[in-house]
Amino acid sequence: MSADTTTGTGPETGTGTFAPRPGAAPLARMIRAQAALETRMLLRNGEQLLLTVVIPTLLLVLFSAVDIIDTGEGKAVDFLAPGVLALAVMSTAFTGQAIATGFERRYGVLKRLGASPLPRWGLMTAKTCSVLVTEILQIALLTVIAFALGWSPQGNPLSVLALLVLGTAAFSGLGLLMAGTLRAEATLAAANLVFLLLLVGGGVIVPMDKFPAGARAVLELLPISALSDGLRDVLQHGAGLPWGDLGILAAWAVLGLGAAARFFRWE
Asked: What is the rounded CA–CA span in Å between residue 178 and residue 190?
């Protein structure tokens, strides 16, 4: 007795001998794999680690330990910790993502990934998941450091979560818009410049009441100002949902993500 070696359906081999058959993996598995790859690449990049971990940590420790800026009543760390958390979100969702995606576009990585079985929206989903994982690690680290410095947070964690999610959406849209429309070198320069300007003028380490009234009215409409002020209202003052700041972040998220979807170029 001999088996049918052509079809693989003989009595000894049985149906399915040649499985798995060629083809794309399930979509959820592809997104998970791409998200894990994006996260590993981000965490191995020295420049990204400088933006996402080193600079926020140094700012938190330095300005909490040294009385450089008058932050008002209470401990300096109670004022600084919410602003540094906002800075961490901006550094990952905007600056880091814009630079990484811009150079992936320049070197043709996005074009090749766009032609793979992973759909383009799946690639964007994977990038978003990578950003969220990185932010969780950032926030955990900065929270531990802030507690070590004597931080005493208040407020509802759900209000904090709502601010962080909308802040991430707002900065992600702006980062993808920049990466998908500018040359990689221009994205690198512009993203770092915006990071520095918003660090100084976004209420992260300098209270907004230190700025002239006219400038303050404009600065308070920026996403970093809305995120840092909202987190400060909740974590320092124990306020409820800061609807005004949430509205500003939601508007930036809609505008940024909408513009990125409309104008993003893959090559």
From this structure: 9
Q: Which phi-psi region, left, alpha or beta, contains residue 242 (left: φ > 0; alpha: ψ -120 to 50)? A: beta
Which residue pairs, CB below 8 angstroms and at least 24 apart, start in 198-202? Answer: 198/90, 198/222, 198/224, 199/87, 202/86, 202/228
Give dist(CA 90, CA 193) in Å, integer: 13
pLDDT, tens digit (0-9, with 9 covering 90-100), for 137-194: 999 999 999 999 999 999 999 999 999 999 999 999 999 999 999 999 999 999 999 9
Give Rg (Cα) of the chain. Answer: 23
Q: 212: Cβ–Cβ under 8 A, 6 or more apart, which residues? A: none
The reported pTM is: 0.86
Q: What is the mean pLDDT of the chain?
A: 86
